From TrEMBL, chains A, B, C:
The keyword Transmembrane applies. Coiled coil: none annotated. It comes from the Bacteria. This is Trimeric intracellular cation channel family protein. Residues 7-81, 94-167 form the Glycine transporter domain.
Amino acid sequence: MFDIIYLLEMIGVVAFAISGMIVARSKNMDPVGIFAIGFVTALGGGTLRDLMMDNHPLYWIQHEEQPILILAMAVIFSYWHRAERIRESRIVFPDAIGLGVFSILGAQLALDLGHSWFVASLLGVMTGTFGGALRDTLCNEVPFIFRKDQVYASISFAGCWLYFVCQWLLESETLALTIGLLFIAITRLLAVRFDIRLQRDRRYG
Amino acid sequence: MFDIIYLLEMIGVVAFAISGMIVARSKNMDPVGIFAIGFVTALGGGTLRDLMMDNHPLYWIQHEEQPILILAMAVIFSYWHRAERIRESRIVFPDAIGLGVFSILGAQLALDLGHSWFVASLLGVMTGTFGGALRDTLCNEVPFIFRKDQVYASISFAGCWLYFVCQWLLESETLALTIGLLFIAITRLLAVRFDIRLQRDRRYG
Amino acid sequence: MFDIIYLLEMIGVVAFAISGMIVARSKNMDPVGIFAIGFVTALGGGTLRDLMMDNHPLYWIQHEEQPILILAMAVIFSYWHRAERIRESRIVFPDAIGLGVFSILGAQLALDLGHSWFVASLLGVMTGTFGGALRDTLCNEVPFIFRKDQVYASISFAGCWLYFVCQWLLESETLALTIGLLFIAITRLLAVRFDIRLQRDRRYG
């Protein structure tokens, strides 16, 4: 189980890092800015979670292969011309998995430390969404999650509660984690589809 | 004493949450954004204070009725049409009480943990003002407290020192808390009156 | 050795505080805003470092003469008319020393707490650059270090690694600290010279 979770976590880190790097590049940032925004987007949520729960050493300090990976990605992203073809639309799938993994694992850690369901769901949502909010604030925009994508945080919140209920009913941690995670990822993907149609309707309606 | 302080604290949380929700709505945020900005405005100051003083679990994790209250407020604020009538001018009174309570309680906690008067006054000011600064930064404005409302943080600073001196002279914690708190709230209300007149003079002068 | 480091640290704090106050003044902030931005620019990096490494009490709480100094500077900066003549170009030299001192001491603290070279170099860069990034975010600009000054963080990163290698080869902490610090400060000064010429070339080229 651990290996699958870790693999999904890496996919989430990579997806969030790429989303940060795309925004940083659109703001004409240099390689250092691209690394910094990628780092903050991918690891900011987990850092906030660990600071708020006094969980030391921080996640990215324990798993230093993750900042190393982001550094390598920033170098590739800055100097390999074919990376310019990566568009935000391409990362919807891994981004949805990342949102699911980060939300559920953030909530699970809070439960392990003895917090209530409500507090754990807030910490899960923060873990899943804070990186993207920081990215947008540093790039001087009203954070994405507050602006147009209202279902982003709501899906994370609902998925955390689904995970709690499943864990309580099924008494199987693994199964509950999987259900919560898949719920968030799949609902997110459906919401992206739905949102795109919604905006098209408005524009041409 | 505890009950009165807790009651005032709740008034401060509600007032700060409303001020955040009003700004979030003016930026066309959705219900999730309204909850997030309300949460951050009301509980951001206390979270910063607890992180800086290594005081765990965080205030809002210990008092989870407060985020639940803010969630309920965000739902009402988003879907109840009469909430649209709430204007920032209506919350000047509870906001002043909130500034007083958060500043004095932040300073008191720092004293209890053995910090000096100067450090405690800085932590008091941060507790009282950080939530509003975060609100404005997330909504992509130059923070309110830095821009036009110069007396906001200064009043908080002066009130903390008044509390320290009273506590030292009077040897009554309760009385000193009350004096510091009332000084901040009343001076703030007088300053708002004065500022409004000052701006009117400039515009039509 | 300690006294020289502490003296350099004070120079760094003063330089970073001035750079924050200059930006705050250009945004028409009042004395409180000038103090707040000066405080955050000078002490934000060290605060982030201490929070991330769970190193309490925070640096500025242990050394409260530093916020007192910044408060005195903010009063002078706000009310003494000759302070208006201070331009950002004047603080390039102490700012370079500050970057060197903060980066190397941040990295050293991380090593002392048992972290790896890579994690220590990231924490060194954060300590050296986070204050300036916060200053620009609070003043509602895309952070300076991401925008045009790409060598800023890179120099800090390279200097941290030079310090690690020197410390490992020379087995003299003092000498390694000095080499890393001077490398960052001197390279930064050279980079500023080079950048100025680069921009002039572009404008008149």
